[in-house]
Amino acid sequence: MPIYAPKDKIILALEAIQSTRAGGGKLSIARAATTYGVSKSTLRDRINARPRRELTQPQRQFPLRLAGVEDIANTLLWVRNKEPFVLLRNMTAKYGIEEGDIYNFDETGFMMGVITASIVVTRADKRSKAKSVQPGNCKWAIVIKCINSGGWCIPSFVIV
Q1: Which end of the chain has fewer CB atoms < 10 Å from its terminal CB, N or C?
Q2: Are 40 and 30 in contact (CB under 8 A)?
Q3: Strand, helix or coil for residue 63
Q4: Taking a C-beta distance cutoff of 8 angstroms, is the pair 11, 47 a contact?
Q5: How far apart are CA 54 and CA 52, in angstroms?
Q6: Where does residue 149 rank: exposed (0-12), middle (13-18), buried (19+ CB within 10 A)?
Q7: Which residues form the HTH psq-type domain (predicted)?
Q8: How far is CA 100 from CA 65, 85, 146, 149, in A?
């Protein structure tokens, strides 16, 4: 006996129900579901032409990966046919700003003693507040990093 995938089993069960009904017989949804090893509710929904509920990516709670965000940004830039930093180059040329005078300042915080990273992902339209609970009292540390566009770094600061 061949091994069928779940979709194939649903199709076989639907065809069996339709063929018995066309021939004047009556095969119940429950009987077809147990015979073909599929869910009764799935068969009932398919027979009644109820659309399947497909979840969007945020509803499935699978965030975009960095490569996906980069692909989207590159596609948008290609569509607009512009370089991303044309305005920055024009402003630095207009006001005489040197490369070494442009800085990027980043700051991050983390809990002392926590080894694993945890991220809470919730839907934007969710009304309740997302919570991530850690056992015990934790101390926080903050790291500050600064670099200019010429590649020169200010030494990192760690605030405990």
Answers
A1: N
A2: yes
A3: coil
A4: no
A5: 6
A6: middle
A7: 8-50
A8: 32, 16, 12, 6
If you count them, how many residues does the chain have? 160
* Range scoring the smallest mean pLDDT among 21-25, 95-99, 123-127, 147-151: 123-127
Q: Which amino acid is at 23?
A: G
Report the C-alpha gap between 121 and 123 in whole angstroms.
Answer: 7
Nearest-angstrom CA–CA distance, 85 and 97: 15
CA trace torsion 25, 28, 29, 32 (10° rounding): -80
The whole model's pTM is what? 0.36
Q: Which two tokens stand for residue 73?
A: 């940004």
DSSP 8-state assignment for residue 83? -
